[in-house]
Amino acid sequence: MAKKAREDDPNAKEETNQRGHGGSLFRDTTLGLLIRAITKNRVLQYPEERYPEHFIEKYGEKRQEERKREVEEANRRSEENWRQENPRDAAAEARRASSQDTLAEDDQSNSNAADENDSNNDRKKKKAHHDTERGNDINLVKFEPNDPENPMNWSFGKKAFTTGMLCVLTISIYVGSAIYSPGVTSVTESFGVSEVVAVLGLSAFVAGYGLGPMLWSPLSEIPAIGRNPVYIGTLIVFVALQAPTARINGMGALIPLRFLAGFFGSPALATGGASIGDMYTPKYRAHGIAIWGLAAVCGPILGPLMGGFIVDWRDRLGYVDGWRWTIWELLWLSGLGLAILIVTLPETSTPCILYYKAKRLRKITGNQNLQSESEIMQKEMTPGQIVKISLLFPFVLCFTEPIVFLLNLYIALIYGILYIFFEAYAIVFVGIYGFNEGELGLSFFGVFVGSVLALLGFEIYLKTYLEKEFDKADDGMIAPEQRLPPAMLGAFFIPICLFWFGWTSRASIHWIVPIIGTSFFGAGTFLLFQSILNYLPDAYPSRAASVLAGNDLFRSAFGAGFPVFASAMYMNEGIGVASSILGGLACIMIPLPFVFYKFGPRIRKWSKHAG
Question: Are residues 582 and 496 in the same domain?
Answer without folding.
Answer: yes
